[in-house]
Design brief:
This protein is of the alpha/beta class and 575 residues long. It is built from 24 helices and 18 strands. Helix 16 (396-407) links the parallel strand 13 (387-390) and strand 14.
């Protein structure tokens, strides 16, 4: 235990600090009481607890200590770190002290704990010169000590081979419990979740590790780590997820939970061997995220109307298609919320359960023990459900059970991985479903994609004019008469320079009609199915309507829809 953690939770300095925060409005009385309760339970100091819970802002934390102790607030952290030969990096990291510069013979350092006077005295004794402290914001000191840890890791790497590290399980466990790994994970999770990331990718490289996050469907660089730190983080994450820390040759899957701003966040973790180590992907699962209402998803009116009509159906099958990350589960959750009522028994089979739906029985698939989608679906049908959601139909047995459940009076919602709504029909027939059986149970097919929404604070008109002549007959009934407003991405601080903020769904919905059911029952080809299907706005139609209305850009549609977009010949008009 550091000396600073042993200081009593109530000192004159801490009392003055709390009074200062209250007087400036930086701390609310109810948050103070919450922090005091947590401090009593954990034994930590009140200022530390308030900071960790996010009840006091980083800037207010540093400014308060600066006012109480008459210190400056550290602002300029050198990169690469300002190393002092007499000061071991391990000591600096543990004590949360970062050398900033020399002012004559005096060493100026940033400190995370301004009450830890023992470490400052030890630093001065070690270098044989005066030391002056500046108080740092918690996030700044964490980033700076992580950078110090990276240098420590690079030094250690020069003395050890990667094979020697990977084969020594005890060494891996030591790395997993080291403070640098713990801090690196906390920082990574805070930055990823604050930035709205859906996934975190840790990619091992020849020189270390590359950390990226997926935000609005696009990967962005987050940070780079030394090889030693990457190995330490990998080991710790495997321990947290209950995986075999010694196994690095085979893929592993698990789940873990980590704190973020006082809230527990669940993650689904998957590892896979790379040539330079183990790659890791963490899927962020927001357990406390509110389920959106069906009407707030931004779905096109045809799709929304189709889903709402299906909600009134007592039985049948709804298929939602699209690639991974296209928002299928969110749409199904919103549909289930619309279906939920006291007289209905709703049961879901998912892998994983992404967040809790109140009033719904949610079943988690566990393939490690043989509890797959098919077995789970067979079991829940004995529990008298009215509505069943199947997270994914991926095999013949699951498809057969789902279709027969729809035939016997259940309303079944399921996802299938196909490129378009109608492609789900031949996909299920290929799995062995009889065409007549599918025709009699299918109520509708939906396809969905997510495109990034232009930042309205900085979007700019696209240069030139576009030829809409070949497209207008198809969208005449869907757009207003104000004419096209085509914009492109620009970039500003509000959107972190990307030009986009959030995403909007692009979708298509095809209702089951007598002509379509007849075509399905006779095993018609894909082209014949499209001929028999009722008129509908396709994914492409909806995407171009979003472009017409200035919601997204041509380049974003090209990224998501690819060659489908090129087929309409939307080009810049001749002057």
């Amino acid at each position: 235990m550091a000396l600073s953690e042993a200081i009593l939770s109530s000192t004159p300095e801490l009392d003055r600090l709390v009074d200062f925060w209250l007087s400036k409005g930086a701390l609310q009385p109810d948050n103070l009481e919450r922090g005091r309760s947590a401090a009593r339970a954990s034994g930590e100091r009140i200022d530390r607890v308030l900071s960790k819970l996010g009840l006091i802002a980083d800037q207010d934390y540093a400014q308060g200590w600066a006012e109480i102790l008459d210190l400056d607030v550290a602002s300029d952290f050198p990169d690469p770190p300002y190393l002092i030969p007499q000061l071991p990096i391990g000591f600096l990291v543990r004590a949360a002290i970062v050398p900033l510069r020399h002012d004559g013979d005096t060493l100026v350092v940033a400190v995370g704990d301004p009450l830890d006077r023992f470490s400052l005295a030890a630093t001065a004794a070690k270098i044989g010169a005066p030391v002056v402290a500046e108080v740092a914001r918690p996030a700044d000191i964490m980033r700076a000590t992580d950078r110090l840890a990276e240098f420590q890791g690079e030094s250690a790497q020069a003395e050890n081979t990667s094979d020697g590290l990977a084969s020594d399980v005890d060494r891996l466990r030591d790395l997993a419990s080291d403070a640098p790994a713990i801090r690196a994970i906390e920082t990574m999770i805070d930055r990823a979740v604050d930035g709205g990331a859906s996934d975190i990718h840790i990619l091992p490289t020849a020189l270390g590790g590359r950390v990226r996050v997926r935000v609005d469907g696009v990967l962005r660089d987050l940070s780079n780590w030394s090889r030693e730190l990457t190995l330490a983080v990998t080991s710790r994450l495997k321990v947290m997820a209950g995986l075999d820390i010694a196994e690095s040759r085979l893929p592993q899957d698990g789940r873990l939970r980590a704190p973020h701003r006082g809230v527990e966040i669940d993650f689904r973790m998957a590892t896979i061997p790379h040539i330079h180590g183990e790659g890791i992907v963490l899927r962020v699962l927001h357990r406390v995220r509110a389920t959106p209402d069906l009407g707030t998803l931004g779905l096109p009116r045809e799709v929304l109307g189709g889903l709402e009509s299906l909600v009134a159906s007592p039985n049948g099958l709804l298929l939602v298609t699209g690639p991974t990350g296209s928002g299928k589960t969110t749409t199904l959750y919103a549909t289930l919320q619309r279906l939920a009522r006291p007289d209905r028994n709703i049961v879901t089979v998912e892998d994983p359960v992404e967040h809790a739906l109140e009033g719904t029985a949610q079943v988690q698939v566990e393939r490690k023990i043989g509890f797959d989608f098919a077995q789970a679906l067979r079991s829940i049908l004995r529990h008298d459900p009215d509505v069943v959601m199947v997270g994914e139909i991926r095999d013949a047995e699951t498809a057969s059970i789902a279709v027969r459940a729809a035939l016997t009076g259940h309303l079944v919602l399921a996802t299938v991985h196909t490129n378009s709504a109608l492609d789900a029909v031949p996909r299920l027939i290929d799995m062995g479903i009889e065409p007549w059986l599918l025709a009699s149970t299918l109520r509708g097919c939906m396809a969905q994609r997510l495109v990034r929404r232009l930042c309205h604070a900085c979007r700019k008109p696209a240069p030139g004019k576009f030829d809409w002549s070949s497209y207008m007959p198809r969208i005449a009934s869907y757009v207003d008469g104000s004419g096209p407003r085509v914009f492109e991405a620009n970039g500003c601080p509000q959107c972190a320079g990307t030009g986009y903020q959030g995403r909007v769904a692009v979708g298509e919905f095809i209702a089951s009609t007598p002509s379509l059911r007849q075509a399905i029952a006779t095993g018609a080809s894909g082209e014949a199915l499209r001929t028999a299907a009722p008129s509908f706005a396709s994914l492409l139609d909806d995407g171009l309507m979003r472009l017409w209305g200035g919601e997204t850009s041509l380049s974003e549609l090209q990224r998501v829809l690819g060659e489908e977009l090129l087929a309409v010949g939307l080009t810049e008009a001749a002057p």
